Amino acid sequence: MTQLDGVVKPKTKRSKRFLESRAPKLVEDVKNAMIMRGGNTSQTVSQALRDIYSLKKPSAVLYKKKNITRPFEDSTSLEFFSKKTDCSLFLFGSHNKKRPHNLIFGRLFDFHVLDMIELGIEKFVSLSDIKSSKCPEGTKPLLVFAGEAFDTDNDHKRLKSLLIDFFRGPTVSAVRLAGCEHVLHFTALEGKIYLRSYRCLLKKSGCRTPRIELEEMGPSLDLLLRRTHLASEDLYRLAHRQPRALKAKKKKNISHDAFGTKFGRVHMQKQDLTKLQTRKMKGLRKRRGEVLAADQEEAQGPKEPKEPKVES
């Protein structure tokens, strides 16, 4: 590839396909995540990274080597790896005396760090510790958020948006009932975030709709909210801006109510009901005598109005 006036021009078809895959699109591809560990990690952090990678596969890249970096102080290495692997999400694990068992969830916009939220692991149960059947790889999870903080506190709102971006998976138009196999439940309570992972079991209920039971399959994490690095409102709004081609065009005289019911307003001209064509039934036809009487009335013309009587 050659670079002229800041524009990269491909020399081969392979490099052309590579540049086309990285170019902006109306409908972007599934967001990939890079999962890496810092220079010093604990066994808890390493196992947590591997378990989250198992839930995120195949839209994730797991780095096995250590990366000596501090994202809150210098994020250039994260931005370099993001551009190299085309990942817009990252999860960084580290461990030290001041911040033990540390996880940093983050996302990037235009290969620059947009949001970073640091969470500390207080309690952890891995996938292997829970002896139960697991969901297949690549299963799209159902995300459930419980807790008032997710709707009121600004940090928790951004954390909710970040977790949705991280775990949502591919965008689909419809989901069959048997495909709802995995549930990720997040609970915000007293400054802590409780993450639980369940497998959906469809049981017989005696009717068409099955009875659903949840079986915990792991991992299970109790997380403590620590440091945050949030983008400004202007940059956050810019990152969520959609192209005009994707915006739905407003249709005239069509409205929807709170339940999604579609209403349409139709404009019609004034109708002459005397010329309205009705169904020709035998019982509605005029008899021969009625037709002759009507023809005679039309031949005589309109009757003159009678003068009112005046009493003397």
Task: Looking at this protein, list some descriptive labels.
312 residues, alpha+beta, Rossmann fold, ten-stranded mixed sheet, two-stranded antiparallel ribbon, 23% helix
Tell me what you see in this structure.
The chain is built from 7 helices and 14 strands. Helices cover 23% and strands 30% of the residues. β1 and β2 form a beta hairpin. The strands form 3 sheets. Strands 3, 4, 5, 6, 7, 8, 9, 10, 11 and 12 form a 10-stranded mixed sheet that branches. A two-stranded antiparallel ribbon has the order 1-2. Strands 13-14 form a two-stranded antiparallel sheet. It has 312 residues and is of the alpha+beta class. The protein has a domain of 213 residues: Rossmann fold, CATH 3.40.50.10480.
Précis, in short:
The protein has 312 residues and is an alpha+beta fold. It contains 7 helices and 14 strands. The radius of gyration is 34 Å and the shape is elongated.
Q: Which strand-content bin applies to the residues?
A: 25-35%
Largest sheet: 10 strands, mixed
Q: Return the average pLDDT rounded to an integer.
A: 83
Question: Distance between termini?
Answer: 116 Å
Number of DSSP E strands: 14
Give the overall form.
elongated
String of helices and strands: EEHEHEHEEEEHHEEEEHEEH
Which consecutive residue ranges, at least 5 long each, have pLDDT under 50? Answer: none
> Briefly, what CATH class of the domain at 29-241?
Alpha Beta
Radius of gyration: 34 Å
Provide the helix percentage: 10-25%
Question: Strands, helices and their partners?
Answer:
Blueprint: E1 2-4, E2 7-9, H1 13-22, E3 33-37, H2 43-56, E4 60-66, H3 76-85, E5 89-94, E6 102-109, E7 112-125, E8 142-146, H4 149-152, H5 154-167, E9 182-189, E10 192-203, E11 211-216, E12 220-229, H6 233-239, E13 254-256, E14 262-264, H7 288-300
Parallel strand pairs: 3-4, 3-5, 8-9
Antiparallel strand pairs: 1-2, 5-6, 6-7, 7-12, 9-10, 10-11, 10-12, 13-14
